[in-house]
Design a protein that fits this description.
The chain is α/β, with parallel strands linked by helices and 177 residues long. It has helices spanning 9-12, 30-38, 72-76, 81-93, 119-139, 162-176; strands at 2-7, 41-46, 65-69, 102-106, 142-145.
């Protein structure tokens, strides 16, 4: 099975303890754990700082599953949950893969930390998750809410800890099996 995981730093496996964009070891990154547990061929297309692209990308036609988790950086850059959802709808609508092959994951809500100084951003991340679910119903694609998987976040309130990556992988494995 050919799987693409398209997202931001939490997909990339960013280690917030590093200052130069370092990553957790493969045995601690959710994408790599998913590959080990399933035996699937998985491409990690996570990128630090990635916001929702303004247009759809051309993913390979032989992609069996496209897992998308985006939106946190858009909120951190000051976009409202509604603005981020509009961008996400435009991006997802343009993807040429069969809708049954797309899984949108609502990122886990942020928490108070070095990058999250106020309650508004936390509230916005909860709102964005609800908007993601509505969006998947409109577009006829699959949905998962990582906010239900008890993801532990680092001191910054945004990035997964190693335990958070393991919890994310466990939650996702339940969804994809």
């Amino acid at each position: 099975m050919n799987v693409i995981c398209f997202g931001d730093s939490n997909t990339y496996g960013y280690d917030p303890r590093s200052y130069l964009g370092g990553r957790y070891d493969p045995d601690s990154r959710w994408v790599d754990i998913l590959a080990m547990e399933t035996g699937w061929s998985i491409s990690n297309m996570g990128q630090n700082g990635r916001e929702i692209p303004s247009a759809a990308l051309a993913f390979p036609a032989d992609t069996d599953l496209l897992i998308v988790m985006l939106g946190t950086n858009d909120l951190l850059q000051g976009r409202s949950p509604e603005q981020a959802a509009v961008s996400l709808k435009r991006f997802l609508s343009g993807i040429s893969l069969n809708r049954s092959k797309i899984l949108l994951i609502a990122p886990p809500p942020v928490k108070r930390g070095a990058w999250v100084p106020d309650q508004q951003l936390i509230d916005d991340s909860h709102t964005f998750a609800r908007l993601c679910q509505n969006l998947t119903e409109q577009l006829g694609i699959r949905f998962a809410d990582a906010g239900k998987w008890d993801i532990s976040l680092a001191y910054d309130g945004v990035h997964f800890t190693e335990q958070g990556h393991r919890a994310f992988a466990a939650g996702l494995l339940e969804v994809v099996k």
